[in-house]
Amino acid sequence: MAVRQSVPCSRGQAKVFWASNRGRRGRSLPTSGRSRLRSDPTASGPGTTPVKPYSNPRPIPFVPESGQEDPRPGRRGVRASGRIEASFVGGAKGRWKIESVQAVRGPSLPPAPRLQIVLGPRHGPIRAAWVLRGVTSHERYVTRAEHERLAASQSPLERPEATRAALIPIAKSAEWWELSQDERRSIFEEESHHIALGLEVLPAVARRLFHGRDLGEPFDFLTWFEYAPSDAVAFERLVARLRGTREWEYVEREIDIRLAR
Ligand code: HEM
User: Fold this and answer.
1) pLDDT at 51 over 70
2) Is the CB of residue 239 below 6 angstroms from any atom belonging to ligand 1?
């Protein structure tokens, strides 16, 4: 069911694209709080954005706030801090067709036919089934050597041949966030080999990691991947392997959204 949702607005103009971010990359609420998705029409109470009537007749607006955008060529949409904020909007329009939505763990999202990715801090009122927000951030778990390997083999987003995509929002449990940084790194890589496994599908799969936790979003992470149809099998194998790792024992909510364009 489509839900009319109001998202706080900063300013106008539509702009939807992926900016190049090469070289830079990413409280446990009680389950009741987390599951109260902003788009959930049944949600109520704290953490729920009130649903207001659609009142803005303009196209979905997006622009990074004036003066905050990095002026260097190829860095459109990237704020001076290097961070990229994005809203993933499930609704009637957008470049990506939503092919499937699978709730892997926890509740799903309301159905929507298309996905629009709107870059920028916030946008005006829009008609959407759901809106998930995230921001890129610094690396937490990557060693220098891993960083170099990733940088050497990663692909840019928006390659013409990459007509398949996956948006996988993930929330981890209170137990995960109560661990220390070195304990998390140890589970993430020494035990689960997340980076080593991921490197096996590079450069075929392009990726970007957004963080939602510090924005008060229901998902700690919005993970985004683009690949060609011929690389879909390799991507599926990677997802299956990651879901079998010790790291995934700490995943308490996950939705697997597949897209095509
Ligand atoms: C395509 C190959 C992949 C590569 C190269 C890769 C690499 C990475 C790296 C380097 C990080 C750590 C970022 C940091 O240091 O903060 C990371 C984090 C993460 N990745 Fe992947 N990844 C891949 C695929 C996936 C897939 C398929 C999923 C979901 C099914 C996924 C979910 C996550 C999540 C949730 C995090 C955040 C973990 C945390 O901070 O607790 N990744 N990934």
Assistant:
1) no
2) yes
* Tokens of residue 215, six digits: 């924005």
User: 170 CB under 6 A from ligand 1?
Assistant: yes
The answer to pTM > 0.85 is no
Could you tell me how many residues make up the chain? Answer: 261
- What six digits make up the tokens of 197? 């496994």
Alpha helices (H) along the chain: 31-34, 144-153, 174-178, 181-185, 194-199, 232-243
**From ligand 1's centre to the CA of 195, what distance in Å?**
7
| Per-residue pLDDT tens digits for 220-252 | 999 999 999 999 999 999 999 999 999 999 999
Residue 97 is given by DSSP the state E
Spatial contact of 258 and 166, defined as CB atoms under 8 Å apart: yes
pLDDT exceeds cutoff 60 at 28? no
The two three-digit tokens of residue 64, written as one number: 């990074």
The one-letter amino acid code at 99 reads E
- What the block records as the tokens of 136 is 């890129």
Distance from the alpha carbon of residue 66 to the mean position of ligand 1, in angstroms:
31
Which fold is adopted by the domain 95-107+134-260? Alpha-Beta Plaits (3.30.70)
Q: Are 88 and 223 spatial neighbours (Cβ–Cβ below 8 Å)? A: no
Residue bearing tokens 């909007």: 89
- Tokens standing for 61? 């607006």
Question: Could you tell me if the CB of 202 is within 6 A of ligand 1?
Answer: yes
Coil, helix or strand for 175?
helix
